[in-house]
C-alpha cells in the first residue's frame, strides 16, 4: 500500500513541473519523504486518516493550476512534515484561495445579524415618554392556537413592553 501511495505521489509531483525534475524517477525522493511524513503524522497506520491525508495531498498536488505547490515541494522549500500538516485552504491554488476569500467576504456582507427581524412603526405609543417612534417583532410564545406576542421597543427612551 505504501509503495503504491509513494508512486502515486511521485506521479502527482512530476505533473507539469517546469523542468524541475527530468523524469518521474526524479520525483521519487520527494515522494518518499512526503509519504514517510504522512505515515508518521497519521499515527503509523495505513487506516482512514492515512488514506484521507493521501487523498487531500493527491488532489492538491495533481491540480493543474497548482504548479507552485509542486515546485515548492520538489525544490525543498516546503518540507514534507509541513506539507502533511497543511490544511485544504493552505494547499489550494491561488485562484481557489481568491475565490474562497471572495465568497467568505460576500457571505459576511450579506449575513443578517442574529435575532428577530424588527419593523419600525408609529402604531404603538410608549407609556413612558409618550412618543410613537417604536420598533416591534412578533414571536409565538404560547401554543399554536394562541395569537403571537408582540414585543415593542421605544426608539426614543429604550422602554420595552409586550402586547
Structure description:
The radius of gyration is 29 Å and the shape is elongated. The chain has 163 residues and is α+β, with helices and mostly antiparallel strands. 48% of the residues lie in helices and 11% in strands. The longest helix has 17 residues, at 94-110. It has 2 domains: 2-110, no CATH class; 119-162, N-terminal domain of TfIIb, CATH 2.20.25. GO terms for molecular function: nucleic acid binding; zinc ion binding.
List its traits.
163 residues, alpha+beta, N-terminal domain of TfIIb, 7 helices, 11% strand, TFIIS-type domain-containing protein, nucleic acid binding, nucleus
- Large-scale geometry: elongated
- The percentage helix is 40-55%
- Overall mean pLDDT stands at 84
Q: In order across it, which strands form the biggest sheet?
A: 1-2-3-4
Sheet having the most strands: 4 strands, antiparallel
Rg over alpha carbons: 29 Å
Distance between the termini: 69 Å
Number of strands: 4
Q: What fraction of residues sit in β-strands?
A: 5-15%
Our count of domains comes out at 2
Question: Class by helix and strand content?
Answer: alpha+beta
Which runs of at least 5 residues are low in confidence (pLDDT < 50)? none
Helix count, DSSP H or I runs of 4 or more residues? 7
Order of helices and strands: HHHHHHHEEEE
InterPro entries: TF_IIS-typ (IPR035100), TFIIS_cen_dom (IPR003618), TFIIS_cen_dom_sf (IPR036575), Znf_TFIIS (IPR001222)
Keywords: Metal-binding, Nucleus, Zinc, Zinc-finger
Subcellular location: Nucleus
GO molecular function: nucleic acid binding; zinc ion binding
Amino acid at each position: 500500500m505504501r509503495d503504491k501511495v509513494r508512486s502515486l505521489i511521485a506521479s502527482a509531483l512530476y505533473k507539469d513541473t517546469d523542468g524541475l525534475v527530468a523524469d518521474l524517477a526524479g520525483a521519487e525522493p520527494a515522494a518518499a519523504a512526503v509519504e514517510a511524513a504522512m505515515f508518521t503524522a497519521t499515527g503509523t497506520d495505513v487506516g482512514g486518516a492515512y488514506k484521507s491525508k493521501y487523498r487531500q495531498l493527491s488532489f492538491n498536488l495533481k491540480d493543474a493550476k497548482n504548479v507552485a505547490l509542486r515546485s515548492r515541494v520538489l525544490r525543498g522549500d516546503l518540507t514534507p512534515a509541513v506539507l502533511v500538516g497543511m490544511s485544504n485552504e493552505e494547499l489550494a491554488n491561488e485562484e481557489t484561495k481568491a475565490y474562497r476569500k471572495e465568497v467568505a467576504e460576500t457571505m459576511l456582507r450579506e449575513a443578517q445579524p442574529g435575532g428577530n427581524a424588527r419593523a419600525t412603526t408609529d402604531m404603538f405609543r410608549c407609556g413612558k415618554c409618550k412618543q410613537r417612534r417604536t420598533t416591534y417583532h412578533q414571536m409565538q410564545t404560547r401554543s399554536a392556537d394562541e395569537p403571537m406576542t408582540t414585543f415593542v421597543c421605544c426608539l426614543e427612551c429604550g422602554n420595552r413592553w409586550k402586547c
